[in-house]
Each structure stands twice: as C-alpha cells, then as structure tokens.
Amino acid sequence: GSCLESVKIAIDTGYRHIDGAFVYYNEHEVGQAIREKIAEGRIKREDIFYCGKLWSTCHPPELVRPTLEKTLKILQLDYVDLYIIELPMAFKPGDAIYPKDENGKIIYHETDLCATWEAMEACKDAGLAKSIGVSNFNRRQLEMILNKPGLKYKPVSNQVECHPYFTQPKLLEYCRQHDIVIVGYSPLGTSRDETWVNVSSPPLLKDSVLNAIGKKYNKTAAQVALRFNIQRGVVVIPKSFNPQRIRENFQIFDFSLTEKEMKEIEALNKNVRYVELLM
Ligand code: A2P
C-alpha cells in the first residue's frame, strides 16, 4: 500500500517519470495510482512517463514480448513509455528470480544480447513500448548493440548508478557522443540496505561539501546531489516513501549550482559503487 500512496503523492507533487520493474512486485500499485490520477482528471496518460524493465530470466527473445505483456496487464496500461533490459547478464528462465545451483551460485543462461535487443525492437514496433533502452550496460555492451548489423533502434537510455560519489565520467561522455541518455539510479546514495548495498562506502548525504553547498542555497544535501546530476544532463530517479521527502526531492528547479560548485561536487567521485551487483 505504501507504493500506491507514494506514487499518488508524487504525481500530485509534479513528478511524471516513474521508474518501475516487474521484480519490484509493486507494478499493480503503480498502475493503480496512475489510473486513479487519470480518473481524477489530474493527469492524462500521455503526461506520465513509465519505465518498465525486462528481468534477467526473460532474455530469450521469445520471452520478451510476453514478459512486457505481463507487466502491462499488471499495470492495466496499454503501453510503457520506456522498456529496458535491466541487466546485461541472463539467468536461467523460470519462476525463480535468482535461480541458484546447489552451491548457491546463480545459474546463468547463454543468450545473445543482440537477439534480445531485436525482440525489444519488435515490442516498440508493436506499440507496447514507446521507446527502448538498457540498464547496467558498460561501454562494450553498448557497442555490441550499436554495432549490431541491421540495428533498427538505438537504446535511448542506459540506467546506471550515478551520484556524486560515482559520477560515471567516461560512460557519461560515451553516452553523450552516442545520444544515449544516462538515467542515474541511487542518486541519493541508496537506502544502505546491507543485503544489496556496499555500506563500506560512506553515506552520501552526510558529505560535508554537499551539506555546505546546500546551506548556501537553503537546500539539503539530497537536493544538491539531485541538482548536480540534472544540471549535467543526467536524469535522476530518487526513491522515497516519505511524503515530505518526496516533495523535498522535487524542489530542485528553483536554484542552480555554479560551475565551481559543479567541479567541487565532481571531485567527490570515489569511483566506488554502492550497488555492486555481485551476482
Ligand atoms: P525514504 O523512502 O524513507 O524517504 P536512492 O534514491 O538513492 O535509492 O535513495 C533512497 C533512500 O534515500 C531511501 O532509503 C529513502 O528513504 C532515502 N531518501 C529519499 N529522499 C531523501 C531525502 N530527501 N533525504 C534523506 N533521505 C532520503
């Protein structure tokens, strides 16, 4: 229920881009929130930008469209605005989200990312996804798609971890050259949940530079971290289930950072990930 409420508050606050995934197990709540706000007359479907994700157990080309159709059925929407390959590695198809062998090791699945991409292109042609992209792809994996013979559509975006402690300078430059938008996940430094976060890297929002710059503008470290990314052309997808923080994270369009401050924040890069995706 918290997801339903949070998405409704977010839409009322002015958010339009909603980042979801089948594996978050809350697409039914997201869809309901969007549909309720449409019914209220607050928004139209075309105002919303919903991103869904193809999970790693669904990479075989014949599974791609049925998987997206399942997401649409859960959302009760006709299309997603963006559909992305969530991870470049494929796992064994089946009901287990993380299929493991008797030693607890992930069972991978040999598939061809280019064939998966062709199935993504077909989803766009069928009108089920307005645009298609990728996530957690490095430069070589992007090159593989971009250099694919007969490529019909380029990935429009690559969703990767991106924030002041992990600024992604090289990947950002490569993506800029190829007109691929970087969507930065964990833009606030994650929830620091030890089950999936590398907590040996210090908490981003405690950073003294971010807090000092925030003080100058009467903003929080979170707002400075988000502003930093949007000001360099990186899309941010902060997560919050707290109404006050949902609103706080939207109040980033009424100030701007100087070039010197942007450089200072860039210099915070530690090149260390919070989300190591160790599997
Ligand atoms: P909560 O949902 O209780 O607000 P990220 O977007 O980098 O993944 O970070 C999400 C984490 O940051 C969540 O634990 C979220 O908790 C917390 N969070 C979201 N917005 C803020 C904010 N403005 N200030 C501090 N923490 C925040």
Description:
By secondary structure, the protein is α/β, with parallel strands linked by helices. Helix content is 38%, strand content 12%. It has a seven-stranded parallel β-sheet. Strand 5, helix 6 and strand 6 form a beta-alpha-beta unit. Helix 1 (2-13) crosses helix 2 (27-39) and helix 3 packs across helix 4 (113-125). The longest helix has 15 residues, at 61-75. The two termini are 30 Å apart. It binds adenosine-2'-5'-diphosphate (A2P). Substrate binds at residue 109. The active site is at 24 (proton donor).
Arithmetic mean pLDDT: 97
What is the makeup of the main sheet?
7 strands, parallel
N-to-C SSE series?
HEHEHEHEHEHEHHEHH
Q: What spatial form do the alpha-carbon principal axes imply? A: globular
**Order of strands in the sheet with most strands:** 1-2-3-4-5-6-7
What oligomerization state is this entry in?
A: single chain
Number of strands: 7
GO biological process, one term: bile acid biosynthetic process
Protein name: 3-oxo-5-beta-steroid 4-dehydrogenase
GO molecular function: Delta4-3-oxosteroid 5beta-reductase activity
Site (Lowers pKa of active site Tyr): 53
